[in-house]
Known about the structure:
Strand content of chain A: 35-45%
Low-confidence stretches of chain A: none
Oligomer: homotetramer
Distance between the termini of chain A: 9 Å
Radius of gyration of chain A: 16 Å
Amino acid sequence: MLETKISLNIGWGDCDPARIVFYPNYFRWFDQSTHKLFEFAGIAMGDLLDQHGGILPIVDVQASFKAPSRYGERIEISSSICEWKERTLKVLHQVHNAGVLTVEGYEMRAWVIPDESHPRGLRSQTIPEILKSAFVIK
Amino acid sequence: MLETKISLNIGWGDCDPARIVFYPNYFRWFDQSTHKLFEFAGIAMGDLLDQHGGILPIVDVQASFKAPSRYGERIEISSSICEWKERTLKVLHQVHNAGVLTVEGYEMRAWVIPDESHPRGLRSQTIPEILKSAFVIK
Amino acid sequence: MLETKISLNIGWGDCDPARIVFYPNYFRWFDQSTHKLFEFAGIAMGDLLDQHGGILPIVDVQASFKAPSRYGERIEISSSICEWKERTLKVLHQVHNAGVLTVEGYEMRAWVIPDESHPRGLRSQTIPEILKSAFVIK
Amino acid sequence: MLETKISLNIGWGDCDPARIVFYPNYFRWFDQSTHKLFEFAGIAMGDLLDQHGGILPIVDVQASFKAPSRYGERIEISSSICEWKERTLKVLHQVHNAGVLTVEGYEMRAWVIPDESHPRGLRSQTIPEILKSAFVIK
């Protein structure tokens, strides 16, 4: 399956008074990395609705923090889809700092389409085959 | 003229390793305070386009930082419109901490309307009288 | 056990182009709500090291997103400690919007103390009884 | 004088419901770019106090927004010190998107040293010559 890696330097403003990354920032980076993964697979997350008729909101997210990272350190985030279910997919994210796995987590996203039976309605549906196949290495 | 005040406690994640507020957060709070000011005047910033045919993007912003604030401290942000020009308005923001003025800044926003002559086009225009009058205390 | 509630209005900048809360912001609010909970129990999270000789970093976090919230909506976050283990505690967070549970998650935090046997070293330890007892309603 | 450039892709979470960058994020990037500029000059912003006895807090900041940027677009931030005064320096930041200048602003930072005559005291002082000379291209 496809995997992408992004690297970034921990910024001053990413850290809190304990001088380590303020943990919500990892989810900001997870989201960026997921977008990158989809882009690499040829799917523009910002155009999902226009091109495929649905969107992929987060339904569940989890992360384990094994070691802190600090201002100026460089981290690498590896992301891949580790699970496909009928209506959901799971993106696995692993954060390495100097070769050490420091954070591991996932985002579960559901395929939902507009449901006109009520305002702002959305309902989950089977993930289109074309989305799944984009992640298969040919 | 109308003035609004919002109060908030400085959060752990709002501060950087120097243990003071990471300055971009002040602009996040300025934006919130402007939205509150407009709401108080009866104008929903999120519905400007639908209700008044235009939007009010930021064109210029400035702030002076006189003293730092720290985790757990409570600040109060006072906001009012300090200048109306034909096509722009200026929102003045003053941040007090324990009665002391610690940050002062402004946001200049322009009234712009969609311009169909080019994609995503916008052009500035005279601010509608109805917007201005909403800020006059009756 | 103690429970705290904080209320906040969803800000313009808290939302993404899908016009719903960008999910990492919920963790920012979880963290704020945990600090509030500890403060209510008489424990200053920023002074843990000075007063109790340790800190409470996040080791695991999870959230389920049941419904989105939008700009201008008001949410309420209820937080309480739902589990004490020897070396960890779990803070349960529930986010309600107009009375409906929209997000539910937890932060697991470990009690760790400085370990001088290596630079920046920390090691987990039994949570001091004084911390636990602060959360018991007398 | 030295100049650095950083490039970044606008993230989904960097944009607001108007589908453009939420403006406080530009200051987050200004700060990152300043840190990069100092690093390039051989000065670690995080170690200023230890190595040079002072710090460089922001005293004034300003930005003009000429055109919006959107999710997925790539911007380049060029930064250099455009003014040295006895006790302050000014970092000029220019943001280009597809070759077009879209945001221009500055951060004014003051050289301050700890002042033990009162708690958390700081007082401004002449910028050390060694800092200034680090920015001269040899």
